[in-house]
């Protein structure tokens, strides 16, 4: 059984439309609050050689990326830490604080627990004007499909391409880009944490249209042979770029790197170079 | 090293006043939002014999209790679940949803992860009018000290008093009570998750006064010999009652059970029957 099968089960227990986006959306005065929670733990999420500071940074970056993908501005982060060794706490908290500071958020609290395996759950809150909120649903045939930067870099580092270690260990959530794209009026957006192919399938699940990409246009990780790079860009996990759809006239958006990789189509399918694209990538398995 | 020593370390990394309360406080239009996150896991938090439904209920109750302790109304809950076995998910989610429904909150999302040991992190959001927010800081000499119900019941169940199993396994957060006490204008409040003695020491740490209780006035768990009951009421963990201070004229508050157990004093100390009260109770240890 994989994560997405379990998500379907959850859709029978809580309102399914609540599960469509990277964040929950909550009324907050005349603005909207978005909220996201993410669990990471040592075995599956923290690569060998990662420092405690980097673990704290990454746990925070993951939730800030979710906030960015809604077009929202990050506000507060809470961190629940299941600590295996107390001496790790300082590095983790400093990494989380520094990531918050770098992206305009504040670390405001959390919880501590003793745990056999280091486990960090970050919860992020952000705000956005209602007209600037971007959801996964909203793509329209004729829109371009684009991403904010090279794909597959984190997976490239895991495959031994050390020049990409920094992207793997100290990921940069696309906060400025998410805000710019929300302001510009993109039609649908999400972050690509489990690989481009799975993300496109996630968009397919909530939109009444399809997505056709041209793998020749994918921004690939530097220094990796092209065939391997394309595989990593399609199916590698750990990227923090945003994937979005937009009416063609909107691009370029000032200050936002955007690589057009395809087009939204009427037929409800995912095509890569005209052929169906596998639904595979990074999934938790039990 | 224990949890509270690590909290002091955290106070050197993030604003210490952020750590004083059960929830973080965040501006939200003309109201305030409160946010709390709590990590529970099988070994230390879920008693033997607890069902998955009860684990989901308890994880949710813990965060709703934090919200109640600020005088706020619960709004939304996010649940991050580190699952050891996929077949446990349905029960956990249904327990969380049912606890939300019972107390006027909505389960709006979360995250799923595969984990060796069942780990649940609940994050709760609530709102409150600024003038009704209650913090741990605010007690004044002359205030009465009170609790909303019997103490030590959860620990009594762990000690084998089966009549208290329901209080242990299906705790009831004091949401209605917290709202009523916030409206009435109590001066300081928190929930008693780690025992009365530790909670009083937590109040001492953030107030410029002291706390004197009369152990003869403690509401004890039914069916437990008095000496043991008093020990459980002072030092047992797992209770979900609220501890608060209030000007004497405020009580009784309509619809809120309140047991006066002592009085706020000028001297910065904790006294039980006139003698210093140990700072002990439930603490995570590494």
TrEMBL record, chains A, B:
Record-annotated residues binding Mg(2+) 5? 194
Known pathway: Cofactor biosynthesis; thiamine diphosphate biosynthesis; thiamine diphosphate from thiamine phosphate: step 1/1
Residues reported in the UniProt entry to bind Mg(2+) 4: 22, 36, 66
Which amino acid positions bind Mg(2+) 2, per UniProt?
38, 66
Q: List, for all copies, the residue spans of the domain called PurM-like N-terminal.
A: 21-128
EC number in record: 2.7.4.16
The record's family statement is: Belongs to the thiamine-monophosphate kinase family.
- Under what name is this protein listed? Thiamine-monophosphate kinase
> Which species is this UniProt entry from?
Methanoculleus oceani
Origin organism lineage: Archaea, Methanobacteriati, Methanobacteriota, Stenosarchaea group, Methanomicrobia
The coding gene here is: thiL
